[in-house]
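Let's sit down with a protein and look at its sequence and fold side by side. We need material for that, and I hope you will provide a protein of your own picking. Once you have written the record down, we can walk along the chain together.

***
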Amino acid sequence: MRRWIIVIVALWSAAAAGQSQIESYIAQWAPTAVREMYRSGVPASITLAQGILESRYGLSTLAADGNNHFGIKCHKDWTGKKQYHDDDAKGECFRVYDSAEESFRDHSDFLRYRDRYKFLFDFETTDYKSWAYGLKKAGYATDPGYPGKLIKYIEDYKLYEYDTMPLAGVDGLEKQAEEVVKDEGEKVEATPEPKHSTVKEDKVKEKAKAKAKAQKRSSKMARKAKRKSSGDEELTGTIPQSPLALEEPKRIDKNQLEEFKFSLTREAYSKNGVPFVTSVEGESYASIAMRYGLFLNEILKYNDLTSSRELLPGTVVYLQAKKNQSEKGLDKFIVDDDSQTLWDICQRFGVKMSSVRKMNGFDASYQPSEGDTILLRGKRRAKK
């Protein structure tokens, strides 16, 4: 009987310790998750739950050694540092980041800029259950119980409260996070040395100290940067819609688009500030040009065409010149489908094909491949 009592007490102590570590993880990374929600539209609750699950609340080898809190693998577009671990297959490649903040940002972008996750952004940021099941459906994880685990973390620790937190409340969260990092560092430094420590114990202790210092430094750098890192858009009090939501002309939400009226019988809409119409059965580029008082060569140029072609119903046809770069907040697009052409992508986002080629260094023969990252704003940096 006594033995069973000892076992039960040990299990309870371990569970309590794990709960405390999860709460510390949440306190430390909630400010980052909320900021990412306002930047990218990914619910803070989902970000935190995935971080807890994927990184074992920051204690996994991937998180400790590579600052990878979300188990994101290398994929074709990754050019940074790498580490290899057994996962679904032996010796798989995982991304390594310079800081945990970089991992959180890449996680948001990973979901935001890939087509297979774009349907998630049709859900409200408060609909964490749809997001959890949607991640599994999109193939983020192979574990059939993945959605249930995320939902349990969200509900057990009330992470859903962060999904409605105003951006102004992040400063208060940051102060709590600073205290957590400070306390964790003090706990590590206050741990007494054992009289006869082993080499293995020494290594574990050194790793713990290094982790605490790295987290402290990381948090300090994040506060210093204060959203001044390159490519950041200004944070506002509105959680953004999905930047990929305007792909299907038939599904366009008229309430979200600026309206342009060119005639009394037909409306045009705007993408990236450029007016367009969607073609109907029997129309051609020439007939649309005539309807809106344009020359055929003009409308072909606006749509990156050198000659007229068959116009299928539902095709986006721009009525003015496209922009040199995409709208603010949509910096890049990650190709998920080999069948897409560069023309398709440029039409989808209202950007000139010549500008996209120039900023990416593409020649006229370039054909997108799955995993390619295509910049839509800025300029590709030269590889060192």
Notes: The mean pLDDT is 78. DSSP finds twelve helices and eight strands in the chain. The radius of gyration is 25 Å. Strands lie at 82-85, 92-95, 259-261, 267-271, 274-278, 316-318, 332-334, 373-375.
